[in-house]
């Protein structure tokens, strides 16, 4: 991709240089791109053929330059789209995985599922801090940041006493 972009950039510079040279040539002739090819008496200029050739080449170059710029735009868009997709990957690695979710518990109600890979529970991101963090948030909203099928997700749940063990209703094991 990099070599291809360098080649396109070099080609673009070549086109622009030749366009500038032809424009300068036509301006020096005193007729520019749209000026008349006949003199004051209505006779063709002696350099009319050179001017027509230069104008024709200029028109071709401008069209080629426009098409080249469209190609560069498409390639840049594709490049940055692929970069954007790679940037969407999470910055943090999972520290735990949900091994089981009980029915009618805070975790199930929040939408957590078996296999969710936990990035953060509140502000903690290590197994040693989970119990303490959950206990601090009993009765309050607790943020769960996790991966599901490679996509980063966030849910809020309220740890509470329910019919089963713990405050969440899910079994969390260390991520391997």
From TrEMBL:
The Nas2 N-terminal domain extends over 7-81
Gene3D superfamilies, alphabetized: 2.30.42.10, 6.10.140.1710
**Which PANTHER family does this entry report, sorted A to Z?**
26S PROTEASOME NON-ATPASE REGULATORY SUBUNIT 9
Q: Which GO terms describe its cellular component?
A: cytoplasm; nucleus; proteasome complex
Transmembrane intervals? none
What SUPFAM superfamilies is this protein classified in? PDZ domain-like
What keywords were assigned to this record? Chaperone, Coiled coil, Proteasome
Q: What is this protein called?
A: 26s proteasome non-atpase regulatory subunit 9
What domain of life? Answer: Eukaryota
* Gene source species: Anaeramoeba ignava (Anaerobic marine amoeba)
Coiled-coil annotation: which residues?
1-28
For the biological process aspect of GO, one term held by this record is: proteasome regulatory particle assembly
